[in-house]
Amino acid sequence: MKPEIAISHYKLGKLSSEEIVKLADSWLEQGIFTDSINFLAMETTPIMAAVGPMLEAAITELGGEIPSKVGAAKIAAKDIVKKMLSGDIDLMKGANFLYWDIHHEVTDELPDGEYLGTNLGFEHMFCWLREVWDCRDGSRILYYTDLPRDQAEQKFLMHLKEEAEKWLDNQS
């Protein structure tokens, strides 16, 4: 994970202190060095109160900025959607991450509008995500009711991917 993505996951509370130390070690192996990264990699019993500020210092030493929680959500979301579309992560795994680990982390700072997900522009993706969930758990589906569930699910996944592409295009 790149440092600019890692700081976003950290700001969203999605990295443990042990994961931060492992990231610092991998960055050193990749030739990414700052004093703070070096100190992070040497932590043997990491606690967040110590490694969190060191991670922030490392990002600053690398010339990066520490994003707000909402800014972090946008950075992490863009990274996840790119991975969903490239196939680096499963489409549903990525969409679930957007829903549970990004969207829900910023609803206090950035409330939804009329529809779930409008705070970050995810409402169209979440429509199809919910249809896949409903299809898989046997709940009532709203679209493609004339198709067998396995075929309807494929349509929902196709629409989810289309909406992810549109969302990413709108971020540029």
Description:
The chain is mostly helical. It has two domains: 3-61, no CATH class; 86-171, no CATH class. The chain has helices at residues 3-11, 17-29, 35-41, 48-61, 69-86, 91-102, 123-137, 149-171. Helix 3 runs antiparallel to helix 4 and helix 5 crosses helix 8 (149-171). The longest helix is centred in the C-terminal third of the chain and has 23 residues, at 149-171. It starts with a helix and ends with a helix.
The structure class reads: mainly alpha
**Can you tell me the overall shape?**
elongated
What are the secondary-structure elements, in order, as H or E? HHHHHHHH
The parts where pLDDT drops under 50 for at least 5 residues are none
Beta strand %: under 5%
The total count of strands amounts to 0
Count of folded domains: 2
Question: What value does the Rg take, in angstroms?
Answer: 19 Å
Short description:
With 172 residues, the chain is mostly helical. It has helices at residues 3-11, 17-29, 35-41, 48-61, 69-86, 91-102, 123-137, 149-171.
